[in-house]
Amino acid sequence: MLFRFHSTYRKNKNSEQTDAHAKASSPSVLARSANISGRNKLKEIGATSFTEVVILGFFVLPLISGSHLLITIMLFLLTLGVCYETIRLVGNLSLKRKIGLGMVYALVFFLLYNAYVPLIVHLIFASLAIILLIFNIYLPLGATMQKLLLGYPVLFIPFIAFLAFSTQHPKIILFTYLVVESFDSFAYLGGKIVGKTKAFPKLSPKKTVEGVLIGAVTAIAIGYIAAPYMIEFTQLELLTLVAIIIIGTLLGDLTASKLKRNIGVKDFGNILPQQGGILDIYDSIIFTAPIVFIYLIAIK
């Protein structure tokens, strides 16, 4: 039964106050509030779903198409976004130095992406990228070096192309992305539901041991289920590959957290609502690519 008091006239002041209170707390008002709250939640869910579709579509659709042109365009835009974010965050450098830094990033990308560059050059850059990744996590660095290291994720992006254009076509990078997302998602959910023990209190306070374990087990299971349809590896090679992807994902996440902590920002950018910048969205796959690349070279 709905209670409505606005049509009743009250002479007594106290009665008027009681009437106002009853009106404010009536089920009709509560229902309207609930509807508004429900609509806001639906809008939030809709916005989040839309951004997730954009994120997946931007990265996955070119790979599924198998088109070298679409993959190249996607990687070019990815590199452009990372360069913009990192140069913007460098801060107090002059415009000339920022332009110079951008040209260095572009040159490195060109050299790595160029098919005529010997394999040893790619391996050197991949090794350098991984060493910088580990150094950034564990070594204390000065403010200038921290800002300069913002640009080194550009070293990693061409290795996505190498994986996409490998003998197993884009399926290898699709498989890598599937394992990365599985680990990330279930590590987050596991940490939220049962997480108690902090895994990396200083670098990533929200990560828990329980969440990491749940994410790893789930990623291994999903990797084993998906592998027969996507890639051709022996059981041992597959297990090693999934383990490497999980480790790379974890290192990438910790590196991104450390970089943001060093320069005092929450996100690298604001390209999509509730998601942050390019590096916030694709950090794990970007940092994992060279590690997977080196592993594939090693087992050939």
TrEMBL record:
Bias-annotated ranges (Basic and acidic residues): 13-22
Coiled coil feature spans: none
Keyword field contains Repeat: no
Pfam families for the chain: CTP_transf_1
Region described as Disordered: 1-24
Keyword terms, alphabetized: Membrane, Nucleotidyltransferase, Transferase, Transmembrane, Transmembrane helix
Transmembrane segments: 45-64, 70-87, 99-116, 148-166, 172-191, 212-231, 237-256, 277-298
GO process terms (BP): peptidoglycan-based cell wall biogenesis
Record flagged with keyword Transmembrane helix: yes
Recorded GO MF terms: nucleotidyltransferase activity
One GO cellular component term: plasma membrane
PANTHER family: PHOSPHATIDATE CYTIDYLYLTRANSFERASE
Protein name per the record: Phosphatidate cytidylyltransferase
